[in-house]
Records
---
Amino acid sequence: MGDLELYLLVSDHWKADGGLMFGVVPKILWEKQKTADANNMIDCACVGLIARKNGRVIVCETGIGNKLSEKRARQVAQREPEGLLDALQRLSIRPEEVDAVIPTHLHWDHAGGLTRRNETGGVELTFKNARHFVQRSEWDFALRPDIRSQSAYITDDFTPLADGNRAVEFVDGDTEVLPGVHVRLVAGHTPGSQVVIVRSGELACAVTGDLVSQRPHLKVPWNMAADLDPLRVFEEKARLLDEAEKHRWLLVLSHETDQPAGYIEESGEWRPEPRLA
Ligand SMILES: [Zn+2]
C-alpha cells in the first residue's frame, strides 16, 4: 500500500462465548452468521497487523501470548500460544527488530503478547527494543478496573513495560505516534480503546480493535456484551465505517476468523482483501 508493506497478523485461534460476543443481539439472528458449539462458544482469532514503513517495523495488536495457565488456555481453546512470534519469524523479523508496538487496548486477548514467559518461568518483554504506545486512560483503568472489568486485565501483560523498563509511551487522545501512524481514541469498549490508522498518502488501513470485532459487528448496533459504553461504540463505529467506505480504507477486524481484512462497499457489503487473507 504506497510506501507501506502490510502483513496480516493472526496470532491466535481461540473461542469466546457467543453471548459475550453479541450482547443483546438475539442468538437466533447471530447464529445465522457464526456457528456456536455445544457450549455456546464461537470461533475467534486475534487479528492485527505488521507494517513496514521507512525501514521501521510496527506491530499492531499482540493477541493472547504464552502466559495463560493450562486451565485458562483450555477454557478458551487457545491453539497457538507462540503465534505472534511465529508470524514474525515467517517474515524473517526477530523480536528485537520491532520498533513500535501498538495494542488497541490492554484486555488479555490484545495485550497478552506484550510480555512472555521465558524458559525460567519469568515474565519478560516480548519486544525489548520497541516503543509501546498506550492511551494513558487505558493504562490507568487497567491498573484499577471496575468490578466487571477485573477479569479482563492481567497486570503481568503490561506493567513490565513500565516497571524496570521504559518501554511504554502514554498517549492522550488522537495522536500521530510515528510519521504516518495514527491512533484514534474511540473509548467505548474500554475507556482508552484506540483504533490504529496507518497511512500512505491517500491510502489508509485501520486496525479496529474491538470497535469492530467480527464481520457481523459491521452492523452498527451489533456490539459486544463487554463494551462499557455501547452508545459511544455505536457513535465511533458509525463514524469509522462511514470514513472507511468514503475513502476506501482497508479495515482489519480484531477477532474475525474468515477474511478479516477488507473494505466496505457503498452498499454496506464487506469486500475482503484477498492479498491479506
Ligand atoms: Zn478482544
---
Amino acid sequence: MLRMLWTVPDLTAATGLFLLVALALSLARPWILGSAVDALESASAGSQDLARVATRFGAMFLGVTLAMNAFRFLYGDARGRLTQTIVANIRLRALEKLHVLSPVYYGENDSGQIIARVSRDVQKMRPFFGLVVFSILQLGIIVIGTFLFMASQSLLLASVTVLFFLATAVMLYYTARRLQPLNRQADDMYDGVALDIKENIEGVKIVKSFGRESRQVKRFASKLDDYIRGTIAVSDFWSVRMPVSDSIFGLSIPVILLIGGGLVIEGDLKKGAIVSSLFYAGRIFHELRSLIRLVGMSQEAGVSAQRFFELLDDTNTVPSTESPLALPKGRGALVFEKVGFGYKEEEEIISDLSFNIRPGECVALVGPTGSGKSTVLSLLLRFFDPPRGNIYLDGADIRRLSLADLRSAVGCVFQETFLFSATMRENLAFAATQATDEKIRKAVETAQLGKFLSELPEGLDTIVGERGVTLSGGQKQRAAIARALLSDPRLLILDDAMASVDAQTESGLVHALREAAKERTTLLITQRLSGVLLADRAIVVDKGGVVDEGSHAELYGRCRIYKELFEGQVLETAA
Ligand SMILES: Nc1ncnc2c1ncn2[C@@H]1O[C@H](COP(=O)(O)OP(=O)(O)OP(=O)(O)O)[C@@H](O)[C@H]1O
Ligand SMILES: [Mg+2]
C-alpha cells in the first residue's frame, strides 16, 4: 500500500516536509517554556531584568507558535491533496483492471463484492495515506525528539518515559494483530449487503410483480444484522483495550514527577527541565492516544487494502499474445477445430466442436437451449481460451492475434443487450467514434430502426439508458445491431438478436443485413425458423458438438433435433 505514495512523489515530499517543519517548531515550544522557567527563576534572583526576560520568551513563543500553525495549515492542505490524488489513482487502476479481467473472474466473484471493493474499500484506505502514515512519522519524530531532550537532562527520566511508551506500543501492536481477522470478517459481510442492494434495485420489477417487497426487506435486514454483529465485535474489542493502554501510559506522568522531583531536590536537575519533560511526555501521551485511534483506522484500511489488492493482483485475465501476428486479409472465414471447453473443469460444455464457415457465407447456428451456442461466441472473442482445439479467423489462430485486432474484426450482438446512459449517437458509434451522422443513419436504416430514430425528440442526441428514454426490448436489440454494423466487422454474429423483433421486421432486417454485408460473413444464432430460412445453411449443435449441417429441407428431413426445434413453428406457418 505504501508504494502508492510513490505514485505522487512531489506531493508526498511536500507533505512530509511541511510536517517536519511544523513538528520541529512544535517541539521547540516546551523547550522555550522550560528555558523561560529557569530564566525567570534566575531573573527573580536579581541577576536580570524580569520584564525583559518575560517579553523575550513570550515573543519567542508567540513567533514559533504562529510559524508552526502556518506550516500545519500547509501540511493539512498538502495531505488532503495527496490522499485525494492517490484515491483517484487507485480507482482508475481498478477500473482499468476490471476491463482486463476475464469473465472467469466475474463468474467467481459476485458483483456486490466487486462494487464494494472499488467504492467502499478504496474509501476506507483513504485515512491510511493521509493520517496514518504521517501520524506514525510524527509520533516517531516526537518520541525521538523527546528522548533526546530528556536524555540531555537526565538519562533516567528519558529511559522511564520510553519504557512506558514501549509497553503501550507493544500492547497496541498485539491488539491490532488480533483485530485483523475481525475486521476482515465484517468487511466480507458487507459484500452481501452491497449485492442485496444492487439486486433489489435491478430486480425491482420482479419483486413488485410478485408482491415480495416485505420478504426482500426481511432478507436484507438479516444480512444487515450479520454485518452489524461483525462491526460490533470490532468496536467491542477496542472498547476493552483502549482504556487499558491509555492507563498504562497515564501512569508515566506521576512517575516523572516523582523521579524528576527527587532529582531536583538533589540538585541534579533544573526545575525548567521537569516542566519541559512533563510537556514532552504529555505530548507523546496525546499522540499515542490519537495513534490508538489511527491503529484502528489503519487496521480497517489494511483489510480494505488486502481486499482491494486481491482485485488488482487477480491473474484471471486472458493471456495477451506476445508479438502478435497481423490479422490476415479476408472476409471473416471462421473455423472451429475439435474445440473442447467447460466453465468448470469437470464439466465439459463444448466437446469436440468442429465446423467451417466460408468467407461471405450467412450461416444459422441452431440448437436446443443450453447447448452452448452463446459459449461459442465467448470462445471466439477470447473471453475464455479453450483448453483443447483451435479456432481460426481468416486462417489465423486467434490466440496468435492481438485482442484488439481480433475483437475489432468480429462484431457481436449479444443475447443480453446493454446500452449506456448516453446519447443514441454515443451508443451507436461506440466502437466507431469517427463515424459520420450519415453513416450512423445508414446503419440505423439497415437495423430497421429508422422510423424509431426519426420519432425521438432529439434524434441522435437523445439520451437513452437509465438516465434517458427507455427503449423496448426489440428497439434495444436493433440499436445493438446498428452498433455492431457501425464497427464494420468482417464477421458479424447475432446471438438471438432478433428474438424480440416481430417476424416481418426480422425478415426486413436479414434482407437489409445481407444486402449491406456482401463482403462479410454472418453467423445467426437463432431459435426461429424465419431466421434460419434466411441463411444459406444451418449448423445444428447439441450438447456442445455439431450434430448435422445443411439446408432447411435436408435437415428437416433427416435431423431429429432440428425437426424437434422447428416442428411447432412449421405448423404455425402452415395454419
Ligand atoms: N458463465 C458461465 N459459467 C458457468 N456456466 C455457464 C456460463 N455460461 C453458460 N454456462 C452453461 O453453459 C451451458 C451452455 O450455455 P450457453 O449460454 O452457451 O447456451 P446457449 O446454447 O446459448 O443457450 P440459449 O439458447 O438458451 O441461449 C449451459 O448449461 C449454461 O448453464
Ligand atoms: Mg445463448
---
Amino acid sequence: MNDDEWQVWVSERPEAVRAAARRWPGCSGGKLVCYRSTENPRFHYTIYSYAETPTGVTCSLVHGRDSTLPGITTFGQPLEQLIRCDCGKWDPPTVEQKRATHKRLERLKQGRN
Ligand SMILES: [Zn+2]
C-alpha cells in the first residue's frame, strides 16, 4: 500500500483507530513497518489489523521469520508494547516454517508437545 492509499484507508477508520494507526502505522513509504515488542525485542512483527475494544485500540501482529511462532497472527495485542524498529528486515515466514508452526499447533491441540 503506498502512502496515499494508506492515508485514505486511515481516514476511513473510526476516530480511535485513526489515532492509533497514525501513531503505529502499518506501512510507510510503501513498505510494511516492522516493530519489536517490549515483551521480547529479539523478534519482528508487522501490524495486520486494528481493533477498537472497550478498553482501547489493540492490533493483530504477524510474526515474522525470526519469531518463535513464524506465520502466526496474534490478536488483541496492546499497541503500547510495540517499539517501532523500521529496519525494513521483517521477513515473512518460509513455507517450511509455516508447516512446522502448523504441526506444532496441531500437537498442542491434541495435548501433546
Ligand atoms: Zn525491523
